[in-house]
Amino acid sequence: MNFICKVKILIVGIFTLILLSSCTNPFAPKFDDNIDNGGPPISDQTTIEGIFQNFQYAYTFNDTLIYGNLLSSDFTFTYRDYENGYDVNWGRDEEMRTTNGLFQNSQRLDLIWNNIVTSTIDSLDANIVRSFNLNITFNPTDVVRIDGRVNLSLKQDPESKKWQITRWLDESNF
User: Fold this and answer.
1) Domain 48-170 falls in which CATH fold?
2) Tell me: the pLDDT tens digits for 39-91?
């Protein structure tokens, strides 16, 4: 092999190395540093906003473990039965069964928290009334839209500083 062939092979080899090292693999793109760093999707529940963040996460990902951590052992849910004209109450166990049924029977849950209507907070207790929009997709042709308000009573554990929901009064007109 003569000198000119060796130089050509060397030039082609160098060109190939430069070309390969400058390419980006479309199947392994680099990490996007510009993503929203508004915080982790799951909160440690030491803030009231963390309760709402975890609530939304639990509904989005059908996560009964996260949802169950939001509720205190003495939790009570209350809603108005408009057809019969009275309030219906149940405790934590029934709430977990009901929510699990919702998670299992829906294809998608889209919960959006809107503005806080009223807020009363002291060192260990809080009462928050907040509006929401909830879209429940059972299948593509069966979508239920609920707009309403939650009236939540919360307690903070003095040691762990975690908030939990003790009472949920549903103020939606569904």
Assistant:
1) Nuclear Transport Factor 2; Chain: A, (3.10.450)
2) 557 888 999 999 999 999 999 999 999 999 999 999 999 999 989 999 999 99
